[in-house]
Amino acid sequence: MFICSHAPTGAGELATLAGVTGWRAGQAMQAVKACFDDWLATYGKHGDLELTALIERITNAIERHQYGRMVNLKTEAFNMENNWTDGKANLLAYIDDELYLFTKSGMTEVSEPLPIKTAFKMLSEVNLTRANHRQKYQKFINGKRQLFYAVKDEILTFLDNET
After folding, report:
1. CB 16 within 8 A of CB 28
2. Quick one: what percent of the chain has pLDDT higher than 70?
3. Residue 155: in which H helix or E strand, if any?
4. With CB atoms counted within 10 Å of each terminal CB, which end of the chain scores lower, N or C?
5. What are phi and psi of 115, to 5 degrees?
């Protein structure tokens, strides 16, 4: 941030003091502020662009795969006639109440190029995760205890709600 705003402002003000620019004192600061405000209006709506990109990747994966590579626990997992959830090829996540329960491979896929821990920490900092066991979410599925990366369904509207 220093290089982006302070250095040009300082250089402009020094040049103004030396009589090089023909500007009044303070005009360099106003010019740099106007440039920064334009950049912020275009690219900085959600602050951290890396977080924004991560949320967009996860949201896109949910929208794309919620009827294929994701299993809704309310309708499928306990249906004994169609109990195919264990070992489903390319399973990305389970859908449970207000959570998306990502498997380790699923979270790796949606968080790339970020490491899982980094991505999950970023989501946790904006309260989009839930954990109940060692920074993961523990859930019994088909009688087996499993650990997941739980992402709240609020992620689907998070970027829309940011100001």
Report:
1. yes
2. 79
3. helix 155-161
4. C
5. -65, 150
Determine the longest span between alpha carbons in the chain, in angstroms. Answer: 84
For 131, phi then psi, to 5°, come to -140, 145
Above 80 in pLDDT, residue 85?
no
Cα-flanking dihedrals φ and ψ of residue 25, to 5°? -60, 135
Q: How much is the pLDDT for 77?
A: 55
DSSP labels, 47-73: S-HHHHHHHHHHHHHHHHHTTTTEEEI
Yes or no: say if 25 and 10 are a contact pair by the CB < 8 Å rule: no
Whether the link from the prior residue into 115 is cis, omega within 30° of 0, is: no
| pLDDT reading at 106 higher than 70 | yes
- Residue 130 three-state SS: strand
**In this structure, how many other beta carbons lie within 10 angstroms of the beta carbon of residue 19?**
8
The angle that helices 104-111 and 116-125 make with each other, rounded to 10 degrees, is 80
